[in-house]
Design brief:
- This protein is of the alpha/beta class and 346 residues long.
- It is 28% helix and 17% strand.
- The strands form two sheets. Strands 2-1-3-4-6-5-11-7 form an eight-stranded mixed β-sheet, with helices on both faces. The protein has a three-stranded antiparallel β-sheet with strand order 8-9-10.
- The longest helix is centred in the last third of the chain and has 16 residues.
- The radius of gyration is 23 Å and the shape is globular.
């Protein structure tokens, strides 16, 4: 079916549902992610459902393509970014999304993730981060906190966890964001912004696993504690948090510190203004590492959003230039060009 033949009537969330029974554990944060994706995609400008493809690896999150009323590919462990990259290069007209978990993307899949970010492939990667291996029944994952007691770390994990946002920023990803399964409106906004970005868009979703890691993000979701533990990043606005927005983040050199706007020593002028278009990524890196400090709030929102030519566009352009110069290629001639050998019976 060509693009001109595809119907363009107003789509709804139901159009993006496969109708299959969703098989995640009751209370799993994956339900929230699925709901917001299905509600958000119909509102994206010029969306063509037949051009949307979801690619996944292995894990609870990787059942995602089954539940989307789009094309999908349930691939192998850690290889979703590589397969999605190949698909985007072969079919640049498609909107290619990746659904993956912390065990899938940041263990065996970390190398593929890094290079997808480095190349700025026009992919959208949604990371379901519950800090545990859920499908294989509760082993510690690359994002599990140090000291985590699990079936594979009965005396506490001695690993330092991967900081997914820092990995993405260090790989020069052009769109990097974080959201939370318990904040559906915020999640929908991040998905919408990622969809509108040209280039690699990485969205980390903090997501609860009620069976093997229940309450992993309780300080960020409980009514009594979330105001003091969550920092919502808004472009061009000061970094304020707290129930009354009377706390702010100030930089002491390169170190973020909390200041109280009611102590008579500080004012709103001391608070950092968030700039998501930070080309140098210094501020973005500082923000990404705030999660490593238990005394600092966890930032949610867009950490970085910059424009940069994409690999897939550059490849198409290069092919067009070479084709005009040399003509359309012939695979058989290519295979038999140069030095070849012919094996005969004699």
């Amino acid at each position: 079916m060509s693009n001109t033949e595809i119907k363009t009537e107003k789509l709804t969330a139901k159009d993006f549902s496969s109708g299959q029974d969703v098989r995640w554990c009751p209370g799993c944060g994956d339900y929230s992610i699925l709901a917001q994706v299905q509600r958000t995609l119909p509102n994206i400008d010029n969306i063509v459902k037949e051009n949307v493809v979801w690619v996944s690896g292995i894990g609870c999150s990787s059942r995602f393509p089954y539940y989307m009323g789009t094309y999908g590919f349930h691939s192998i462990h850690g290889r979703a970014p590589a397969i999605a990259t190949g698909l985007k290069l072969a079919r640049p007209d498609l909107d290619v999304w990746v659904a993956t978990g912390d065990g899938d993307l940041l263990s065996i899949g970390s190398n593929h993730f890094i290079h997808a970010c480095r190349k700025n492939i026009d992919l959208k990667i949604i990371l379901f981060n519950n800090r545990i291996y859920g499908l294989t029944k509760g082993q510690y994952s690359p994002t599990s906190e140090k000291g985590k007691v699990t079936k594979t770390s009965p005396y506490g994990s001695i690993d330092y966890p991967f900081n997914a946002l820092s990995v993405a920023l260090g790989s020069n990803a052009t769109f990097v964001a974080r959201t939370l399964d318990r904040e559906p409106k915020h999640m929908a906004e991040m998905i919408d912004k990622a969809a509108g970005h040209k280039g690699i868009a990485f969205v980390e979703v903090y997501q609860n696993c009620p069976i093997f890691n229940d309450g992993a993000y309780a300080p960020l979701t409980d009514k009594e504690t979330k105001d003091d533990n969550v920092l919502h990043l808004e472009h061009g606005k000061p970094m304020l948090f707290g129930k009354d927005k009377d706390k702010g983040i100030k930089l002491d050199g390169f170190n973020p510190v909390i200041i109280n706007l009611n102590d008579g020593k500080h004012s709103i002028d001391d608070v950092i203004i968030h700039d998501e278009n930070d080309e140098g990524m210094v501020r973005a890196f500082i923000l990404s590492h705030m999660t490593d400090h238990p005394d600092l709030p966890t930032p949610l929102g867009i950490f970085r959003k910059v424009n940069k030519p994409t690999y897939d566009e550059a490849l198409v352009e290069q092919i067009d230039i070479v084709t005009k110069k040399k003509g359309k290629g012939d695979l058989e001639k290519l295979l038999f060009a140069g030095n070849t050998w012919e094996v005969s019976e004699n």
